[in-house]
Specification:
With 146 residues, the protein is mostly beta strands. Helix content is 0%, strand content 34%. The two termini are 53 Å apart. The mean pLDDT is 85. It comes from Sporosarcina soli. Pfam families: DUF4183 (PF13799). InterPro entries: DUF4183.
């Protein structure tokens, strides 16, 4: 019998012996069980995605004819706290903007928004005076805690 603790006797047909001095039959070398990693696992941070939402409201006093499109400056809008705004907050690339006219979300290709204005593409229609126009800007940030 072998004094090597890494050599265990497992009978396998037609295999060379683990050590040449063993005379009890063919054996195969079996590695010892792997030792566990002595280091503890690295802590996994708690990650939270935090949405940031800004809404801007405008109620036109006169009807807006969309035949040639329309450009509405951001200075005509007010925020959730009824404060006048100087510009829209746009979260790029970690966000997006929605447009609602009379509470109905509009197709993305119908408008563009930058920090200074809402631009509505030419269309066959009119936005009537008193119809609410809402620009909603959503952005996302991530916080981590260890």
């Amino acid at each position: 019998m072998s004094n090597n603790p890494q050599c265990k006797r497992i009978k396998i047909a037609k295999l060379k012996s683990c050590e040449s001095q063993i005379r009890y039959g063919p054996y195969i070398m079996v590695s010892p069980k792997p030792t566990p990693n002595p280091l503890p696992p690295a802590p996994t941070p708690d990650m939270t995605i935090v949405p940031i939402v800004n809404r801007y409201f405008y109620i036109p006093q006169t009807s807006i004819d969309l035949e040639s499109g329309a450009k509405i400056p951001s200075t005509l809008f007010y925020d959730d706290n009824e404060n006048e705004v100087d510009e829209f907050t746009i979260f790029s690339p970690n966000g997006y903007v929605n447009l609602y006219i009379n509470g109905v979300i509009q197709e993305g290709g119908f408008y563009q928004v930058n920090s200074n204005a809402l631009t509505i593409n030419p269309a066959n229609g009119v936005i009537r005076a008193g119809t609410p126009i809402i620009v909603e800007s959503l952005g996302f940030t991530m916080t981590t805690n260890f």
